[in-house]
Automatic annotation (TrEMBL):
This is ADP-ribosylglycohydrolase. GO terms for molecular function: metal ion binding. Binds 2 magnesium ions per subunit. It comes from the Eukaryota. Pfam families: ADP_ribosyl_GH. InterPro entries: ADP-ribosylglycohydrolase (IPR050792), Ribosyl_crysJ1 (IPR005502), Ribosyl_crysJ1_sf (IPR036705). It comes from Cutaneotrichosporon cavernicola.
Amino acid sequence: MLKPDTTQLVNTTLHDRILGTLVGSAVGDAVGLYTEFLTAKRAEAEYPGRRFSLSPPTPFARDMHRLKHQLGDWTDDTDHALLILLSFLHGSLTPDDVAARLRVWVNQGLRALDSLPLGLGATVGAIVHDPAYLDNPVAAALKVWRKGNCNVAPNGSVMRTHPLGVVGLFTEEVEAMDNAARLSAITHVDPRCVVSCMIVTALVRGLIRGEVTTEAHIDGVIDRAVERYNCAPGPFQDALAVDVDEMSLGRGELRKYTHATSLATLDLDVEGIGYVYKALGSALLLLRQAMRRVAEARSSLAAKAVLFEPLITDLVMAGGDADTNACVAGALLGAYVGYTALPAHWRDGLRHGTWLTGKGEAVCRVLGVVEGGYEREEDTAVDGGREMVSADNQERRWMELQARMAAENTAYLQKQKEKEAVKALKTRWLRW
């Protein structure tokens, strides 16, 4: 009997999981946009059917936040993850290179797609706008963190570092963790942010490699990340240039979120919705739930094929910072179930989905998972292969966005007015 080509079989699985990670996170982000900043009660009122589609697209709830976006858009979460991915494809992945790309994004948006910087967070904005940011990104981040009494731990770095688990697929776990810590520290130096990035990155790597398949494996990654963070001196702590004592990590708070028993216990839609441990905790809870369902199923493949949509839907219906929570969860679930198990009406409805999938394929070629090699593309450059936008043109772009929003809102109100007129006419005829 001929033996199968196991190398090809392994590569096919890795290929599926890599694309599952990158597209799954973007899909989670895009679906999460539907309920971002809403309470769970408001989300239920706006989407009583608890069903979302990107192809054909479910209409957004009507408010100024969602009006800025087009149906099928992802948000700044995926944009920032792409800065890391594009840096890798350009062959220049370092903290300084990603910091330079982040500065461009804050001022001009994602140049590769000629998109505006929608969704800029207060913490990232304050840090990246520091005149000395590019000279020493970590110092700028530390300054803002200390100004916040060393208690500023938003989710702006954990939403972007999951691609490091992909590109670090064939490196040691500790190296992937260290890279995640370094990339977190260019904006988020709080220990909760750093260790969250380390955990998510190591989990993505382990899930793709098939080394993380049980909840015990998840717990092992968490323990190793904490141990690596607490080691002294560690390479990432050298990069942070602070005393280990100043950056000590309490395990009780971490365990509370990483071992949450339900989404309700995470209070995702109440005070501090952007807290990094809420994003981490909700993503780990969904991954644990997925593993339990697979363990209980008669067919693991059949179970994985239907996991992604209901779990992500439950998460986004919980409201809060739903796009970030679902972006992180989407990366982990996508790595677990693979690209082919993502719901087609989500996966195929991403506005820039074909471009994103192409970048994922490029990463697979660089890693040697797919044959053919890779020639660096112009849009992987810091400027996205385009000229930088002048101040006048940038102002024009914002004005065009405002005009589009106004036109869409006017059209919506006109349709509502027409519906009310028809309803009133029917009522009069019934009375007559």
